[in-house]
Amino acid sequence: MQMPTALGHAMVGLGCGALVASRQLPRRARLSTVAVLVLLAALPDLDVIAFALGIPYRDPFGHRGFFHSLFFTTCCGAIAWWIHRLSIRLYSDTTLSWSALLVFLIVATSHPLLDMLTDGGLGIALGAPFSNERLFFPTQPIPVSPIGLSARLQPILLWEAAVFAPPVVLIWIGRRIVLNR
Ligand SMILES: [Zn+2]
């Protein structure tokens, strides 16, 4: 797949999970919130199924097309927050705050923005469905992940672990020390 790997995207969800998985929530809700954010961060790459369906890469519904747009990812973030908020309410008196919505939106939209920093493949249809122009940021420091398994994947996974893991660990440690929660 042409993107940061699922590991890189998942790290964003994992790190941001520290911002919303407060101890005011039951343990089950904290764990499920982090899990939802991890899945939300990686969700747009399910569009690789387009290759199997014979949809060309450049098609508006091809890989990195509509399903990587700000429109789609913002909707996904809001819907995921709303459904997860309701689901926690089923077994808890407390649930996700309105401010958690912002974190869900940041995690959801981080996916196409990170993909725009990768050094290969086609750009991202950030403005779909209003524009199918494929976009990159001016600099692309993130090595693109190959489509399917390849020998290139391992060094990219190591690169992403080295870059993404330290801030994620620091965020979780910082939350515990600063907020004592
Ligand atoms: Zn992607």
- Return the average pLDDT rounded to an integer: 90
**Secondary structural class:** mainly alpha
Strand content: under 5%
**Bound heterogens, unique:** zinc ion
Distance between the termini: 37 Å
Helix percent reads 55-70%
From the structure provided, what is the oligomeric state, counting identical versus distinct chains? single chain
Radius of gyration: 17 Å
In short:
Helix 1 runs antiparallel to helix 2 and helix 1 runs parallel beside helix 6. By secondary structure, the chain is mainly alpha-helical. It is 55% helix and 0% strand.
Structure description:
- The N and C termini lie far apart (37 Å).
- This protein has one domain (6-179).
- It is mostly helical and 181 residues long.
- The chain contains 6 helices and no strands.
- Helix content is 55%, strand content 0%.
- The protein is globular.
- It has helices at 6-20, 27-42, 49-52, 70-89, 98-115, 153-179.
- The model has no long low-confidence stretch (mean pLDDT 90).
- The structure holds zinc ion.
- Zinc ion is lined by residues 3, 44-45, 68, 111, 115.
Key traits:
181 residues; 55% helix; binds zinc ion; mainly alpha; 0% strand
Task: Outline the fold blueprint.
Blueprint: H1 6-20, H2 27-42, H3 49-52, H4 70-89, H5 98-115, H6 153-179
Helix pairs in contact: 1-2, 1-5, 1-6, 2-4, 2-5, 4-5
Zinc ion binds at residues 3, 44-45, 68, 111, 115.
